[in-house]
Specification:
By secondary structure, this protein is mostly beta strands. It is built from four helices and twelve strands, in the order αββββαββαβββαβββ. The chain has a single domain, classed as Lipovitellin-phosvitin complex, beta-sheet shell regions (Roll). Keywords: Signal.
């Protein structure tokens, strides 16, 4: 080995290692005029045991709701800060409700008579929101049917992305408050926290685990009943290359004993699946 070779190797060994650029944080890529279409399938079962007014014996009932809908989010505008204004409309909807007595009621937009009854909100903008590149709900401009408070608990695209690119296992939080307006409540507000966990990537999708919890549950079990549907847990899938929400698989479950006195019980179970239909 020549003296030059030894010098060259020593120099290379001492050369500083250039830092690799940090990976880009995942972000929504809003585009004015773009329409994002999603299919939602939700199944909900409510079991309740209450005391008969006359005999004071427990009576158990069960109700089941099955909802399938197709909704469209149209990007109306994107400002200089990357905040998009989106309008949501429902293109299709079918709902089946099995009542405690066993009878079933079905509403289907594919049927002309049902579509006529839905004319007020079918294929018309019913929600207008402003959302930034992280998925944060900046503003609810319009929400028909009192959905504004619900949108804080159930974000339009189901997650808020982290400030920086997360490593596997990295967590971040989103606090939010949910106000119970009549008839569910009297205007009281409850604080929640939503924890997100990076579960890694697969097939180009960032998989984010979601856990929702009440910061301070109400003192009585009965007061918790209308809050249970907000306690979603599961996975959300984000298309990192396209910069859009792709899908989610969520569930909310709770069993509340003595919600209406000794011997009563409230059991809630709901599953939620949403998939992007964009080509």
């Amino acid at each position: 080995m020549t003296r030059f070779t030894v010098f060259a190797l020593a120099f290379l060994g001492a050369a500083p290692v250039l830092a690799q650029p940090a990976p880009a944080a995942p972000r929504f890529k809003w585009e004015a005029g773009k329409v994002h279409t999603y299919r939602v399938v939700q199944q909900t079962i409510v079991k309740e045991t209450v005391l008969d007014e006359k005999s004071e014996k427990p009576v158990a009932t069960e109700a089941k709701t099955s909802l399938v809908l197709v909704r469209k989010w149209t990007v109306k505008d994107v400002d200089k800060q990357g905040v998009a204004t989106l309008e949501m409309s429902i293109a299709e909807m079918k709902q089946e409700f099995r009542q405690p007595d066993g009878s079933t009621t079905t509403t289907d937009s594919a049927k002309p008579e049902d579509a006529k009854a839905m004319a007020e909100y079918l294929n018309k903008p019913i929600v207008t929101v402003r959302i930034d590149a992280q998925g944060k709900l900046v503003e609810v401009k319009e929400a028909k049917g009192g959905a504004a408070a619900r949108l804080q608990a159930e974000l339009p695209f189901r997650l808020v992305l982290p400030d920086a690119a997360p490593e596997a296992g990295k967590t971040w939080d989103r606090p939010f408050a949910f106000k119970l307006d009549p008839p569910a409540g009297t205007g009281e507000s409850y604080d929640f926290t939503q924890k997100y966990t990076n579960k890694g990537t697969k097939d180009g999708y960032l998989i984010v685990g979601v856990e929702t919890a009440l910061k301070a549950p109400p003192k009585t079990t009965g007061e918790q009943v209308p809050l249970v549907p907000m306690l979603w847990t599961g996975d959300v899938y984000f298309n990192t290359s396209a910069g859009k929400y792709q899908a989610s698989r969520l569930s909310a479950k709770a069993e509340l004993a003595n919600h209406q006195g000794e011997g009563t019980k409230f059991v809630y179970e709901s599953t939620y699946a949403e998939d992007c239909l964009d080509k």
